[in-house]
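Students often ask what a holo structure prediction actually looks like on paper. The answer is less mysterious than it sounds. You provide the chain, you provide the ligand, and the output is a string of discrete structure tokens encoding the 3D arrangement of the protein together with iron/sulfur cluster.
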Amino acid sequence: MEQQNQLLMKVSTPKVRYRPFGLLAELTYRCPLHCPYCSNPVELAHTNSELTTEEWKRVMQEASDLGVLHILFSGGEPLVRKDLPELVAYAHELEMYTNLITSAIGFTRSRALELKEAGLDSVQISFQADEAQLADAIAGTKAHSRKLEAARMTRELGFPLTINVVLHRENMGHLSRMIALAEELDAQRLELANTQFLGWAFKNKEALLPTRSQVKEAHAIAEAAQVRLRGKMEVLYILPDYLGDRPKPCMNGWGRRFLTVNPMGEVLPCQTAGVIPSLLFDSVRQHSLQWIWHESPAFNRFRGTEWMPEPCQSCTQREIDFGGCRCQSFLLTGDAANTDPACSLSPYRNQLTALVENIEQHSITPPAFTATTTHTRPIHFRTNPKGLPVRLAQPTAPSRDRISTGGYPIVSI
Ligand code: SF4
Ligand code: SF4
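The corresponding structure tokens follow.
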């Protein structure tokens, strides 16, 4: 590790001083759902090491001092933390815009009222599909009906509502109905995010990667909805990296606008960066957030454009897409500094092409989660970290073992 740090220190600190605008506060990795595309790490840490209430308050104060204006309380499921209203109230006092990113399990009326009183500004609820059977099969637990209740209650209480749907092979054919559901629930914003193959999704890419024709059709449906719903509901459609020609500007550039603090206090440029083994992410338990943001080797490793290899180094797009995603580059090529294979100019593009072709050749229809035949490819449902139990305000949801997986074996790691 010492050698790694020495190597990292050789990377010169960029002259530009960046300011973070958004903080993703991952309060816990505990969650009652088991989504197979979850962005949480596949190797989940023991929850006993979660930051305390006082530690989170210090983090928020330091984030505010750095210029952060927007805090997203996320997880896992942030409602698992009993101190959530206290943390929201503290962020509100610091005049940050507060957003709850939730599965909605545990978002009872009394909890919602408590959060409203604390100053919570808006709520984002994830949906797995438009109907219960498929949605519950994807979530690995019975959650859909409770999400519907929670979304209606969210609007009744006057919170702005965002609905987030992660799109993949299984639910893409339901896109029109998911848009209709978001309209019916009176959402102000609908995020339709093609699966990013990081975290658990990378482990499940064979089951989740949509076909090209599905993506083409989804794109047309999303574009039509954007036009039709303009002024009523904002529809965001996040393109798929694996089936495109150019990468997205991941996090708007490494260490440029956003930071993530994970449940144990490690600070990362994005929530999945922990997958890069050559980087050591410093903790708020050892350093100030200011030092980590401005000075830490990990935050400076991929800042700016100096670190970029060719063809990015001399490309006109380099300050637009920032060379793509470092985590994706690592997962697909073994080196986070390589040009993202999601770019057709990347020397590693053929590795992604071969991977996609292989998945396409062996893709399974009918889709995985609700198929009645047994398939050989397992789905890896996201597991919980060991340690503290997943306690919720409502009775705990039924175990995923009671949900049909359509013949797919559930694999825990
Ligand atoms: S399991 Fe699902 S609901 Fe829970 S944190 Fe992961 S993606 Fe979110
Ligand atoms: S070569 Fe690099 S900077 Fe240029 S488009 Fe591709 S990823 Fe972006």
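Strands lie at 22-26, 70-74, 97-102, 122-127, 161-167, 189-194, 234-238, 258-261, 267-268.
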